[in-house]
Amino acid sequence: MVRGINDRFFDGLVYLVLAAVGLAALFPVLYVVSVSLTPFSEVLKNGGYVVIPTVLTFDAYREFLSRPEIPRALMVTITITVVGTIVNLVLTTLIAYPLSKRYLPGRHTLLLLIVFTLLFNGGIIPTYLVVKQTGILNTIWAMIIPNAIWTTNVLIMKTFFEQLPEELFESARIDGASEWRVLWQITLPLSVPMFLTVGLFYAVSHWNEFYQALLYVTDRNLQPLQMVIRGILRQSQQIENPENLVPTPTLQMAAVVLASLPVIIVYPFLQRHFTKGVLLGSIKG
Amino acid sequence: MQPELTAELSTIGQRSSFRRTWAYVWKQRTLYLMLLLPLAWYAIFRYLPLYGLVIAFKDFNPLDGILGSPWADPWYKHFRTFFSSPVFGQLLANTIIISTLKIIFGTVPPLVLALLLNECRAAWFRRIIQTLSYMPHFLSWVIIYGILLALLSQTSGLINRWIVEAGGRPIPFLTSPSYFRQIVVLSDVWQNLGWGAIIYLAAISGIDPTLYDAGRVDGAGRLALIRHVTLPGVRNVFILLLLLRIGYILDAGFEQIYILYNPQVYRVADILDTWVFRTGLEQQNYSLAAAVGLFKSLIGMAMVLMANRLAKRWEGSIW
Lengths: 285, 319
What we know:
The complex is a heterodimer. Chain A is mainly α.
């Protein structure tokens, strides 16, 4: 097929726009990294931050990590990410698995009750009062329990379980396996990719935890990383800071880079699973 | 399982004997046992707050509790306070304006990106762009706030540095009411552009390839193929997503606004959720905040149901 001049022009345009999209996604992140590595001397020499500094330093990272609140905040975030994701997965499985059984009496009603929560909710204040009443305010659980089950993830899991061939389970049941064993030894091994997807959705949300910490945690010692970093970002943006060797913006960007590093490093390897999850979720439950 | 199951169900149907039904339910007891904990969670954290909504009709006082607090007089007192207050119109307008802008810029650009990715012939290039454009989706709003500071801060931001170098005066983007909404929408697009394209790419890959062949035989160029094959192929998905987002129009994004805004921009930035948060939890005006929350939930539910009904005209329901 001979490709006409129009076709070539069209291809060129496609590449150009796509390259612009890629650059728009990448550039801000790269610039933040570059600011975090810029030494004070460079800032003074150039009269501000530049896109590509000639000298690099890790001083800002050292200073950020030596702040007393950082290791604690990191511990909080890691704890809620690990414990929270386990709680999420256990509870979501325990509801999605039975509801994936079409022969379960009452299934339809239960599904309606669950989907209704997507439609109508008590809102911020009544939910806060309930959480307060359970006595978990200002504990690590306040960032795990109130959002322990995402209805959308229940629907993703349920849809996945429904696709598994029922004969497989039935033969195990005939061999005398209990429903728990069917779930643990047959269903789970078949569902690893789905668990990875849903688990990653939950884990990222915990790593980025902000909302529940804002509402339910006032204890400064229990603030997760994102909360602490927001505090650091709210400080003055003035570059001139005679007492410190590291100017505030440099420190702020070091904090931003460190807090997003785990997600950015892990993400390219898991991208495939994430995108699969979106598509699983789009199949209606 | 299947034959046995149907046999069992039909016996239930024919004899409708209570004992048979009970025996069948009893056989599934392990499944019900599994449901126990999650259902208890739903009852406590999703249904109990609905009961808590009665405080919208009471003068709630934390010491007296939900039951002990006196009823508001008249019962619609808090609603009247809110509807007659000048903030009502402003909050509603801010919420709907921000939401609408997000819907417009959050549905069309991802579709365009998906079309472009689909037209890209070099698979490696396509993969790189996809990876790059999905990435921001996983960054938190605190992180994006940090990125915005690096670019837009009045004292040290890159854009302002360029403005100053070009002889202009630095602009306080993040604290200026005339820029705030644009920043909210732009950062939302930045976060979700690539992610939003995924679902359209999936829809495009589901289009029957013979349609393209037929189009080519008829002499259609690439633009014509996009217009007559690809776009009709993603139309349903597009409309469904659009309706779903319109259904949630009163959710303008609490976390994003709360993290990005500041008192200087409240006038254009304050949405229903942020106002409820400040009024209820910071000023402890629980009943008024709950009343506004109830108003929002009711309108929201009506919108979603309406969207779902409309969506049924196009291929099935939202769920």
